[in-house]
Each structure stands twice: as structure tokens, then as C-alpha cells.
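Whiteboard transcription, Tuesday session. T.W. wrote the C-alpha cells on the left side:
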């Protein structure tokens, strides 16, 4: 397998494998594991899995995560902001696209897709070491989901075929790619249960996460992502969503939940980086958002200290610990000014991949909407478990009860350095479950629990309209740099950077015409974004 060149923005890609054929191989025999289908150690497969885990959110360098996600999706999700302009004339927060930054979302993902194709080759077309291969399938979906949800159509189903692959519509990627791949992974891992080769991935120490490589935990992970995808498509294809939810509920291993805890990677043990320790704490390039300030301060949310550091020095601190965030679209300078002292992101010893609370909030929404055989009467229980699980994961489990009875509302936003950025709180929704505003409560609390996974939070914001985020300041003032997003509206996708177009220019143009109504801009909704 050719080595991937790491530090590139635009690459010619030589494709050699068919993922459609790959799925055929899996469908032929995902059961009946025998000794002939195993190699003694799976060391090559182990290395591929570890590399893919480190690269879901790039943890191998101090800076790639910043351009992979932090300067786009994390901002669009209302999680973080950058306090300075980086001497750039374009920054994504005000919808003045920096395609050079955004191209790194694909550059980082491409490394994982390359490792996945190598894993397929090394497992002899998924006929040996199939348990390792199943883990690779799950990581492949986790890798590509933010890319597809961020930009739209992508050459996924035949990634690895020739030099000019077709771009697939988001619908086909979800229903012909992601879901079948997760199902295959679950079937493969289940076929090892109670057999002599169960938990080989665990025994090989291939898994860098706290899941420990056990087959049942990886099934939980795949099943949780299935549930995530089902809710994502529930507005545009409710019948398929119902089917997927029911399948997920019927899986005996269940979901990533309070019993497993958050899926995390220990950055010290695995000798990788928590990127926030550099881009936020050391470099002051990333600070709390205005939305996080409004919601967490208003709610007196005890998770605040687990997410952010108090603001430091100058007029920001005042009396006691004050948390200060910044609004997107605010006027910035290259030297960052007072905003360099605003609240930075707490960089712990672990980096979260999937929140254990997510499955509860997904089930709460499904219940509130009577999806998958669930009923509205079940929504409160799942909601309560979601909040409690998030609190426990952040070391404040004892305070969950009081929070769930709270009638506090988000606070008005105050910019301590520039009062022109101030705004009135966007909502009066409370943590207390009242039986009204159910979807807003569920998604708002899920948004808090998902932090810092901006890619997932941004996708859910576009799908549901919640939480109620603030517009970029420039959009309030009428400075629409994108030129297509109406006043008072949020972006719906990122335009393609040149390295995605460069995969297959003719196919990209066809996809823009066929799947994006000819609009490669920030206001063209994706397939699942219908509300």
C-alpha cells in the first residue's frame, strides 16, 4: 500500500479498491468464523485500527485538529470561537469561507480511508481477521460521517475505484453505505461471541479507547451510531428511520451508555495530544463561544468547569471566577486583544470520541416523536438518564438532581470587551422537564453533553433548529460574505474546498448539479435537512 503524504491540501488520488465489492464479500459470509479465517496475531490490522482511532479527531499533531474541525464545525455548533483573525482575510465564523482551512477536513479523513483500504487488503478482502476488519468498518463510518454532513455528496460507495470515482448523494451514502457497513460490523462481531476467538481485538491491545477492544463494546458503539443516523434521517425518510431504530433497540448488547461511560482516548497513555492543550491553552487560538457562555452560565451548569477555564486578567475577571465567551462574526484583530484572556477550553487527560449520554437523548427524542415503537411517556426517563450520565462523566453526578429541577434559563450574553456584541438570551427553555418544549429541551441538553464534538452538534442543529444559537454578528449587521445565505439565517453546509473537487472534478460538478441543485454554496441544504 502506498504511503500517504501527510502534509498536503490537494492530492491526486489513485484508487484501487471497490467498496461495493467489499460489501459483497462481507455479505457472502459474515458468520461462521473458523481458524482458517484467522491469522496468528493480526499485528498489521492492529496498527491500522490504532492509526484510525488517533485520526478520528486528529490527535497525532498539535495543530491539524484546528483546521480539521475547530475552525469550522466547532464554531458553527456554537461551541468555540477564535479570538483573532490569524492575519487572514477570510474566516469561517462570518461565512467568509477559508477553503484552505476547510480542506483539512478531507485531508485528515483521507488518511483513515487509506488505512481502511489497506486493512481490507491485509485481511484478504475481509476473509481473515474479520473481527479487526469489523472495527475498521465502524471507524470508517465515524471518519466519513462528519465529512459528508459538512460538505454533502462524496465519492464514498466506490472510494478506491479508478481515478475518477462518482460522487454519491448523501441519501445513498447513508442507506447504501453507512447503515449496511454498521450492520455488517455488528454481524461479524456477534459471530465471534462465545467462541474460541472472542475478543481477539481486546487481547491484542489494538483498541486505544476505554472500550478495551471487547466485541460487545464495539457492537454497542456501532449500534449507537446506527441510532444516531436513524434520527438524522427521520424527517426525510421516517419509515427507514423507524426500521433502523427498531433494529437498534433489538440488539442485545444495547448502546454506549452509563455502563460503558464516554468513549475516550487517554492522551497520556497513548502518547498523543489533546489538541486543546495547544490550540487553546498554549496558543490562545480557541476560546469559549458566546452561546456556551449564555447557556452554561445561565443554567449555573456545574459542567462548566469541566469544559472551560475561567477568564483571566483585565476587566474580564471582575470579582470571582467569570467565564467569558465570544460571538462569531465579531470584529477581530490579528493580535487577539482582550479576547486572548477569555475562557479557554479545559484540556484533560482524555479526549472524548462519543458521549455516553448521546444514546439516551436519541432515545428521548425518538420517544417524544413516537418513533421505533417508543412512546412520549418514555421521553422523560431517557432525558433524565441523559443528563445524569453527562453529569457523572464530568464528575458532578451528585448535582444532577437539583439541575433537573431547575427553572433557570440561559443568560443574556455580555461581551466584556465590546458591548456592541451583546445580545438577549435566545430562549427561555429550562433544564426542568415539564412535558412541553420536549424536543428543544432534549436537543439543548444533548448539545451540552456532546461537547466538544462540534461536527455532530452542528449536524443536529441544522436538523432540528436546536439549541437556539445566536447568529454571527456580521449577519445581524447585513454583511453577508457568502452572498447566498439570507439575512437572519444560518449556513447549511460548507462549500467544497479544492481538494474534494480535485478527487474527480467532472464527477464533483455532476454531483453539484444533480444533488445540490447546482448550488455549491453555504445555503444549500443537505438531503436530511428538510426543516
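and on the right, the sequence the group agreed on:
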Amino acid at each position: 500500500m502506498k504511503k500517504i503524504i501527510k502534509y498536503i491540501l490537494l492530492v491526486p488520488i489513485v484508487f484501487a479498491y471497490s467498496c461495493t465489492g467489499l460489501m459483497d464479500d462481507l455479505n457472502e459470509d459474515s458468520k461462521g468464523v473458523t481458524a482458517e479465517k484467522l491469522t496468528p496475531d493480526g499485528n498489521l490490522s492492529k496498527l491500522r485500527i490504532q492509526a484510525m482511532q488517533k485520526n478520528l479527531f486528529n490527535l497525532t499533531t498539535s495543530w491539524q485538529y484546528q483546521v480539521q474541525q475547530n475552525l469550522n464545525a466547532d464554531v458553527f455548533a456554537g461551541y468555540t470561537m477564535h479570538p483573532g483573525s490569524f492575519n487572514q482575510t477570510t474566516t469561517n465564523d462570518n461565512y467568509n469561507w477559508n477553503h484552505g482551512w476547510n480542506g483539512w477536513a478531507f485531508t485528515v479523513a483521507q488518511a483513515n480511508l487509506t488505512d481502511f483500504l489497506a486493512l481490507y487488503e491485509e485481511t484478504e478482502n475481509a476473509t481473515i481477521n474479520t473481527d479487526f476488519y469489523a472495527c475498521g468498518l465502524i471507524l470508517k463510518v465515524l471518519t466519513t460521517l462528519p465529512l459528508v454532513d459538512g460538505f454533502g455528496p462524496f465519492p464514498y460507495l466506490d472510494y478506491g475505484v479508478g481515478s475518477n470515482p462518482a460522487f454519491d448523494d448523501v441519501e445513498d451514502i447513508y442507506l447504501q453505505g453507512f447503515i449496511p457497513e454498521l450492520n455488517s460490523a455488528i454481524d461479524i462481531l456477534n459471530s465471534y461471541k462465545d467462541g474460541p476467538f472472542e475478543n481477539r481485538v481486546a487481547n491484542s491491545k489494538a483498541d486505544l479507547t476505554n472500550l478495551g477492544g471487547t466485541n460487545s463494546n464495539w457492537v454497542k458503539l456501532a449500534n449507537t451510531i446506527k441510532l444516531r443516523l436513524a434520527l438524522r434521517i427521520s424527517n426525510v425518510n421516517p419509515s427507514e428511520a423507524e426500521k433502523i431504530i427498531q433494529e437498534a433497540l433489538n440488539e442485545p448488547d444495547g448502546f454506549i451508555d452509563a455502563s460503558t461511560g464516554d468513549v475516550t482516548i487517554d492522551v497520556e497513555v497513548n502518547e498523543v495530544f489533546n489538541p486543546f492543550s495547544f490550540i487553546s491553552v498554549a496558543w490562545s487560538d480557541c476560546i469559549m463561544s458566546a452561546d456556551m457562555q449564555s447557556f452554561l452560565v445561565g443554567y449555573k451548569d456545574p459542567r462548566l468547569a469541566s469544559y472551560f477555564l475561567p477568564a483571566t486578567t483585565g476587566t474580564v475577571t471582575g470579582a470571582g471566577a467569570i467565564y467569558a465567551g465570544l460571538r462569531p462574526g465579531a470584529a477581530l484583530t490579528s493580535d487577539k486583544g482582550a479576547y486572548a484572556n477569555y475562557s479557554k477550553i479545559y484540556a484533560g487527560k482524555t479526549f472524548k470520541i462519543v458521549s455516553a449520554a448521546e444514546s439516551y437523548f436519541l432515545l428521548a427524542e425518538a420517544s417524544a416523536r413516537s418513533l421505533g415503537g417508543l412512546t412520549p411517556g418514555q421521553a422523560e426517563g431517557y432525558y433524565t438518564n441523559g443528563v445524569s450520565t453527562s453529569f457523572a462523566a464530568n464528575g458532578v453526578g451528585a448535582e444532577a438532581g437539583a439541575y433537573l429541577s431547575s427553572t433557570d434559563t440561559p443568560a443574556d450574553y455580555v461581551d466584556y470587551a465590546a458591548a456592541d456584541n451583546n445580545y438577549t438570551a435566545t430562549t427561555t427553555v429550562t433544564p426542568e422537564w415539564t412535558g412541553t418544549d420536549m424536543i428543544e429541551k432534549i436537543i439543548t441538553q444533548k448539545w451540552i453533553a456532546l461537547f466538544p464534538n462540534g461536527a455532530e452538534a452542528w449536524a443536529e442543529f441544522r436538523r432540528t433548529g436546536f439549541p437556539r444559537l445566536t447568529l454571527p454578528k456580521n449577519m445581524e449587521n447585513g454583511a453577508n460574505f457568502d452572498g447566498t445565505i439570507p439575512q437572519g439565517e444560518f449556513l447549511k453546509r460548507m462549500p467544497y474546498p479544492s481538494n474534494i473537487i480535485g478527487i474527480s472534478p467532472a464527477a464533483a460538478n455532476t454531483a453539484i448539479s444533480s444533488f445540490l441543485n447546482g448550488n455549491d454554496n453555504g445555503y444549500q441544504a443537505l438531503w436530511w435537512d428538510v426543516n
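Someone added at the bottom: The chain is about 45% helix and 5% strand.
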